[in-house]
Amino acid sequence: MSVLTVPNAARTRRTPLHSAGFWAALAFGVLVVLAAAVPRLLTGRDPLDIHLDQSFDPPSVAHVFGTDQSGRDVFARVVYGAGQSLLIGLGATALGLAGAVVLGLLGGLGGRALDAVTTRFIEVLYAFPGLLLALILIAVFGNSAGTQVIAVGVASMPGYARMVRGQVLAVRGSGYVQAERVLGRGPARILVRTVLPNAFRPLAVLITLGVGQAIVWAAALGFLGLGVQPPAPEWGAMLNAGRDYVQQAWWLDFFPGAVIVLFTLSLTVLGRAVRAVTEPGGRR
Amino acid sequence: MSSPARLRESLATAQPVVAVEQLSVGFHGHTVVKDVSFTLKAGRCLAIVGESGSGKSVTARTLLDLNGPGAHTTAHRIELGGQDLTRLRPRAWRRLRGRRVGYVLQDALVSLDPLRRIGAEIAEPLRLHKFGPRVAREQRVLELLSEVGVPEPELRARQLPSQLSGGLRQRALIAAALALDPQVLIADEPTTALDTTVQAQILGLLATAKQRGRTIVLISHDLAVVQHLADEVLVMCAGQIVESGPTTRVIRAPEHPYTQRLIAAIPSAHTKGTRLSGTRPPDVAPTPKPPEDAVLLRAEGISKHYRGPDGRERSVVQEVSFTIRPGETLGIVGESGSGKSTTASIALALTEPDAGSVSFANQPWSEIRERDRRPVRRRISVVYQDPLSSFDPRHTVGRIIGDALAGHGESTVIELLDDVGLPADIAARHPLTLSGGQRQRVAIARALAGRPDLLVFDEPVSALDVSVQAQVLDLLTDLQREHGTAYLFISHDLGVVHHLSDRVLVMKDGRVVEEGTADEVFTAPREPYTKALLAALPERWGEQA
Amino acid sequence: MNGSVRLRVLRRLAEAVLLLLVVGTIVFFLEHLVPGDPARAILGGASAHPSPQALAAVRHEYGFDRPLLAQYGSFLAGLLRLDFGESYTLKQSVLSAIGGQLGSTLALTLTALGIAWVLSVVSTLAGAGRNGWWARIGAGVEVIAAALPQFWLGVVLLLVFAVRLHWLPVIGTGATGLVLPAFTLGIPLAGFLGQVTRDEFDAKLKQPFVLSARARGMSEAGVRARHVLRHAALPGITLSGWGLGALISGAVIAEVVFARQGIGQLLVTAVNSQDLPLVIGITFVVALVYVVANLLTDLAYVAVDPRLRTTIGASKA
After folding, report:
1. ipTM of the complex
2. CB 3.0–4.6 Å: which of A92, B409, C69, C264 could bond A214 by disulfide?
């Protein structure tokens, strides 16, 4: 009964609002969103302006991230690239979620046979390396920005679908759904008012983390030369263009990549903070 | 009785084996044990009794320095066999643990490493304290298993904890604690979570160990459990000792009001019709009893089978029949796996019986479609052991009860909270922030929202401390008197069932083995199983007086 | 091997066949139902302008003019014999093209998996369940490591250790050439495995059986290594099968960064030129590797968790 009871004082948890990491993540996240919405606020330069006399300038006060082979300002390109990269990430996440909700609900709410089929299907896709799934789609549909969104979305779908199905099943089997049945509630009402809201609750966190993952995957495809094509200022495409000059101009790949890393890290930290606030411990 | 040399020696010098003076323990500035002092002589048993949060486990763990790095311990004196423990270094503590003090935890399923074999777990203290070569250790493990009454020791030593029953696991855990014949054995709730008959066996095993000269510190929340084994009792409350003395004196003539309340709170044959929590019943007119021949719910020959993971059919409920009359309480008592919860689920029409039928208010109940049942459902409600999992995690107390009220405008959330003895401001709170007793009251309030004719209780007080349990049981009595609601009350605790029930079913392996009025069944049992159950109950002091 | 293990192996194999069939079928129908002409891909891709006669000849040669179901039938029959046909661009059998590259990629991914395990176990044993700065730094490093994309980590490692410090070759074969790509893949996976293992380790440290072990006189190091680590390794082992999949994804990137031979490079080329037989073939081989990896994972799990082995004497006392 009293095994390992920890006195209350020891359980007081640090809230995310007290951690410097949270505030740093929030600040960086806001900065990227700002760059995506109004890039002109952050840089006065044009990302497509060519100055052949300034090619491969290393980072300096004038060009904090240096310049590329055509003398374009890398910082301006990173700032202007935020919009498209964010859009690709959000689009792919939305696509993946939409497909996942359909599949997950089919599995979680359909009969036993339907669940068995969809679950196998989801598991099989989940088992498959995500980037490969995306590559297959690009191979079939050809190389374009649209395909890139679809490919990343489909690649992220199995993970979400698994989660949705698991949540729906867990909530359906929970004590509080049984309590609703005992009160004489019909299945439709229980589904809409109790099962779905509770099943989708943890998705908020998942989306925060998922957008970051989608941006990384999209950038990886871009890096391989699949997706938005240079010279468009998009993070993946910039990585691809910088690949050829990596030994002579390290800044071409370093800075766009670092921004991607910091942004996904920020999303991870923010996602965890959201989870810490919305899902207080102690629930069984 | 054989008395080993050590016992005689110790008695001759009259030196206490354990001596603690002015012990205080705090965690992060929060004191959980304050000014605790006691001594214990060789070959005797001291019981530390208290409810959760009383500091009883922390006190005992001080003797092993097992409270973890967060604990801040101060004491004038902590001595074991004359040795001062207050200045011991970590390495010296490790030499002491297991060798001079053995420690037995409750719930052996999680207290034994689930990935290691029983033999390896028992051999661990032997290996750590360099007890002979490997062969000798293996031999000793088998000896120990036989000593604690585990049949087929060679087989059991090769098995994993999950392959043993709860009783055998607890025996194995005791064997590991006894491996190096320690001076003192600390048993921390050793019988909690065990069935009554198994509980009696484990207590018997500890009694044997004491007869052989072992000194025992027994920690329990249940005064009834300790009285057979303990020579002395410490009663703890909120980190302090409120009463101590010889066991029979403390139990028969408790001096401190807390101990008196604690003892009065234990439900048994002798508490029937009395208040357990010491509060006065509310002043309301009781609902008149309905005619004798009226029947609210009737189950006839219900059976239920499940297919186990091994593909074999298992019969969970077989040919069970009973009736519940309006306004009465039918108790179902049985050990784990007896089918009592499945019976409750069938009565609620949440589980469909394979055979037999249930009728409610003289209308078919188990055989009709769910759609037709729904309008009637509000007349039968349920309260489970774990109320938290039955609340939508998004909602506040007010919303939880309000949702259950929707459509029936008979009362308000505030009235219902008042009915179950909760203040109105609880409505704005989240169940997570409530105590176990408060949560159970909220669950009862919700169950009452539809003004049901029948309330099903499945182990509603099993997770509660005895004083909280007493309050909830009194509340159930009051509510029944006021509203005339019939109860189907399911519990493994014979005392609780006897206290509350008018009639009782005793279930074993899915069948009803005995039924009758509560007094008939519990004072003059006919079936051998019922007799065995009652015999396994720790003796109540009232029966001796 | 007893019954329950054999059952798991059989189930895995069934899953494998299902996976291969599903992927194969989806790719086949996508290829034939979406607009676009494989014959064009064979004759040089979107930029080429072959004559109608040439297109027709190619269509006939590859059987694209046959009914769809007949094509699907021979496609499936080919799969069963591991015959994926001929690559559109390499003009070589798909199987032999893959065979030449598979070993290099496997060496890379397995080395990376080993690195990931070593790093995460060391990090967990050192920091999990402890208080203070050391544990918090460890946890922070794991989160950051898990978030590092291979395309960036690879470039950074390349710049620092090959271009700047000259410790390792920029493009190398043999053991020295394997180091940087393997760390590029291993570090993020180590961060991921480390987080999972650490969480489990922390949870298990609070279990009563740990208190039991301490009460018997076991030291802190003993409790960690003998009791808790075994429990904490279980979720990591389960995830290793999945992790190998992630490593193969990553290998595509790492092979491009370090200009290393392997099926990742091959795949990128195939995708760029819409060489579907080659894409399907690589997909299949990866799926096969993946299935074998999961089988091994299952066996490793059984080795660590004896509960799955015991079907004898399972009757409760």
Report:
1. 0.82
2. A92
